[in-house]
Design goal:
A hairpin with a 2-residue loop joins strand 1 (270-271) and strand 2. Helices cover 76% and strands 1% of the residues. It has one domain (16-203, 225-443): Up-down Bundle (Growth Hormone, Chain: A). The protein has helices at residues 3-16, 19-33, 35-38, 40-50, 56-71, 74-84, 86-106, 111-140, 145-158, 164-174, 176-195, 227-230, 234-255, 257-263, 276-302, 304-321, 329-341, 346-358, 363-391, 397-430, 442-448; strands at 270-271, 274-275. The chain is mainly alpha-helical. The chain has a two-stranded antiparallel ribbon with strand order 1-2.
Amino acid sequence: MTQEIDLAKARYGPIAGNRVVQLIAGLVAMIVISNYQYAFTLFTPGLRQQFAGAPYSQIALIFSLFILFETWPVPVAGIFIDKFGIRTLMIVGSLGVLFGWLLGGTVATSLFHLYLCYGVLAGTGAGIIYIATVANAVKWFPDRRGLAAGLTAAGFGGGAALTLIPISKTITALGWAHSMALWGVMQGVIACIMALILRHPPEGWKPAGWVPKASKTVVQTKVNYSWQETLRRPEFYLLYLMFIMVCAGGLMTTGNLSEIARSLKVQNATILGVSIVAFTATLTGITNAGSRIMWGFISDRLGRENTMTLAFAVEGVFIFLVTQIANSPLLFVMVLPFVFLSWGEIYALFSAITGDVFGPKNASANYGMLYTAKGMASIMAGWGAALVAAAFAGSFQVPYYIAAAFDFAAALLAFLALKPLIRRRIASEEGIADASAELVPEHARASSR
């Protein structure tokens, strides 16, 4: 045991001071909030039946609002997490998701009520938990940042695979409202328990025996940029644009899977006695989780930008293939999981590269700002995609063409623009004494001496 590890365990005890325990607690918290995003499509048939007079775009707006409030308040939450610690904010987030679904399933009598309960309250709670756990993994695992971020994000992407079929069966037995309330309470309680375990590593802590080394594939800054300084960096805005572009296709599929199945004329098919939507959503949850772990692991060796180039191009191919599988339940079940195998990685790669490029100290705030790009993408992916589909007789073909084009464009940007921009800046920091104040803030130069 090194002094750094002893410091963590002396401060937090042998359980909370163990970084593997921290990773597991964050993973469990992510698993229980995953249904707030990925199970929405299971509630839409019941919502359409109850609110029969409303166009589907107004129901899809619940999903868009959830993503917006899961992302846009996150920078403020990230600042509070970095400043005051993770536990208090995690408890607030846990109560948000608990009461969001509980109230949505008990007192909500209109779509507006669901906008507030499911969209605003549950969305904000889920966003707090998401940014807290991912940033915590980045801080505890500087030596395996891509893998740790991927494992944590895998909880959010794949956790729903454990529960989508049970939720579907609960909806069949109890109706959408009672199911939402029941699952909301269970998930919120578990998240609160995990909140009591999570801690940030002590100041100056590092893994036992780990010494930062220069790498030609994964480059990491030695400067901890504040959120204000991060906003002055051009690479932040390039990352933001790329996040929006690659996020849109997967979110569109997640939030509209029932309607996409209808568009492709496979909505009435069943697999092993389970509806094709619930069965496919379970498979996509598994591949979504695997994507975050697999591509995060690859990025620790191949480099973040190179991995982005490859993954985004593969994603574009599978997004395009969705437009070619009408009237085939078998292809629907085969192709959709591969869409998520090359989409879920964005939540590992963008969080890891934020720690690499802007430093780990303020990772909660910095990644929180970048994560708001998901909210921007949700406007196109939920409400916007539903409107475009309505203009083409309910077909999602045109939205998928647009999403595929975004993926290919982002792949090119990762290799041709992002990679040289990041590496030039970090290379200039190696000569920190001669670097300009724009590249390396004065307080960072002083702390690095």
